[in-house]
Amino acid sequence: MNLPFFVYGTLRPGEINHDRFLRGRTAEEQPGLLRGAVLYEGPGYPYAVEAPDGEVRGELVTARPEAYEELLARLDRLEEYVPGDPRNLYDRVERPVVRDADGTAVRAWVYVAAPAVAARLRGRGTRVESGDWRGVR
């Protein structure tokens, strides 16, 4: 099953990586909300850190079926995600995301801070209180 992607940083429309990675490869992009995570500032890009009390604003992106496998591989490379690698900055996880349009929850891929990065951010990172990267940029 091809899951949509939830993007909350540089892959959002109008951000630096949207055109490079998503343009022409998506069937639909719509606003959404990831519950159970908070947002932290990174070096030019944000990290979603799993936390029971938070929300992160972003877009739910559905890839065109013929572009799905290529897009998944490209996003894994962008996020430097390798399954099981303890050096990952991000882990790709399946999480429910609420669509703004109708309030329904959809299972989606989300790149969240890997455990070591999340621990460091919780200890001394700068949290984006609004949960919206656009408020920082």
Automatic annotation (TrEMBL):
Residue ranges constituting the Gamma-glutamylcyclotransferase AIG2-like domain according to the UniProt record: 5-134
InterPro entries reported in the protein's UniProt record: AIG2-like_dom, GGCT-like, GGCT-like_sf
Any Pfam family hit: GGACT
Protein name: Gamma-glutamylcyclotransferase AIG2-like domain-containing protein
Native source organism of the sequence: Streptomyces griseorubens
